[in-house]
Design brief:
The protein is α/β, with parallel strands linked by helices. It has two domains: 3-222, Rossmann fold, CATH 3.40.50; 227-304, Alpha-Beta Plaits. It is built from ten helices and 14 strands. The protein has helices spanning 44-51, 73-78, 95-105, 112-121, 137-149, 167-182, 194-200, 218-225, 268-281, 296-304; strands at residues 3-13, 19-29, 33-37, 59-64, 67-68, 80-83, 155-159, 186-190, 203-208, 211-217, 227-234, 250-252, 258-264, 286-293. Helix 3 runs parallel beside helix 5 (137-149). The protein is elongated and about 80 Å long. The protein starts with a strand and ends with a helix. The chain binds adenosine-5'-triphosphate and magnesium ion. Adenosine-5'-triphosphate binds at residues 14, 16, 18, 20, 38, 40-46, 85.
């Protein structure tokens, strides 16, 4: 698939001397939903701000559909819509005024039909003449999305789109993001809600302390790094694990009633069958069993866990 955004060798050192991004390489494919995950302060907003021309890079290049973000600023910027992490709107402007003005900023000819479609898609049409100050928090956030879509961008950045948004509205937003992708818009989002990435993303990038530590298809990531556990409830408590079972990664609960077998998802079958056979041979009987699977959240936490 064609890359619509290519970040190469990108670094950022802020005036304070703080190195927020280190040698970032990232290629985003046209039409994908890419989730950028990372703990607070990892550099997500810095990266997005550089791509959108709000923060200057210290080194490296960014190309948006072939346009260099510095040499060819206007062309690059016109392809991008940004919904920033912090809400910034003029309280006394109307909804319609805001989206029309925003489109004009990009030098696009007026297109009331497009703006109407965007406002309707975001359930803001009936508020079009309202002043922003009269909108609820969730409506303001949706207005930020409408603003970002006003100039018909090819790439939409959503920096924490659902922070402070209620559960129902979050699901509506997920729907909206998917429908935007279906119209061909490439979407890059940051989120602290891992279920959001798990639900929506085609690919996931993890950034940690200014470095991209992993980029992969979501499904691959969960397959490769996902772990499963088989938990067996024993009929009789065990005092210790028989030596015959020492080859397995087994854990016996403190009360001796539960055996937990942890295995990676790739070699699941072989391990389980052999384990159950060996358990039978040693005469250990169980009365119940269940399996659990790690979520993207478990994977993420294990990747970025450190001495912070
Ligand atoms: N203008 C600035 N001057 C100096 N340091 C900055 C500036 N802006 C950001 N930083 C630092 O750069 C690092 C990355 O910040 P950034 O906002 O990119 O993180 P983030 O991944 O978006 O975090 P969050 O999840 O909290 O939004 C942080 O340590 C932050 O303190
Ligand atoms: Mg941020």
């Amino acid at each position: 698939m064609q890359d619509i955004l290519v970040v190469a060798d990108l670094s950022k050192t802020y005036a304070t001397g703080f190195s927020a991004l280190k040698n970032i390489h990232l290629a985003i494919r046209k039409g994908e939903i890419f989730a950028l995950l990372g703990p607070n302060g990892a550099g997500k907003t810095t990266l997005i701000s550089i791509i959108c021309g709000i923060v200057n890079p210290s080194a490296g290049t960014v190309r948006v559909d072939g346009h260099d973000i510095i040499r060819d600023y206007r062309a690059a910027r016109s392809l991008i819509g940004l919904v920033p992490q912090e809400l910034t709107t003029d309280a006394f402007e109307t909804v319609w005024g805001t989206v029309s003005f925003s489109r004009g900023l990009f030098g696009r000819a007026p297109n009331p039909g497009h703006l109407e479609r965007v406002l309707k898609a975001l359930s803001l049409w009936d508020k079009k003449d309202n002043k922003i100050i009269t909108l609820s928090g969730g409506m303001k956030r949706r207005l930020m999305i409408a603003k970002a879509l006003s100039h018909e961008p090819q790439i939409l950045f959503l920096d924490e789109p659902t922070a402070g948004v209620d559960v129902v509205l979050r699901h509506d937003m997920w729907e909206l993001v998917r429908s935007l992708r279906d119209t061909g818009v490439t979407i890059i989002l940051t989120t602290h809600y891992i279920d959001e990435a798990e639900e929506m993303a085609d690919r996931i990038g993890v950034i940690h302390k200014g470095e991209i530590i992993l980029v992969d298809e979501k499904s691959e990531l969960m397959r490769k790094l996902g772990r499963k556990q088989l938990v067996l409830q024993l009929q009789q408590p065990l005092r210790q694990l028989p030596a015959a079972l020492s080859a397995y990664a087994l854990e016996l609960s403190a009360n001796g009633c539960e055996l937990t077998y942890t295995y990676d998802t790739q070699s699941e079958r072989i391990g389980i069958t052999a384990l159950l056979d060996d358990l039978g041979d040693t005469g250990i009987l169980f009365k119940d069993l269940h399996t659990t699977e790690s979520s993207l959240e478990d994977i993420f936490v294990s990747l970025v866990r450190d001495d912070r």
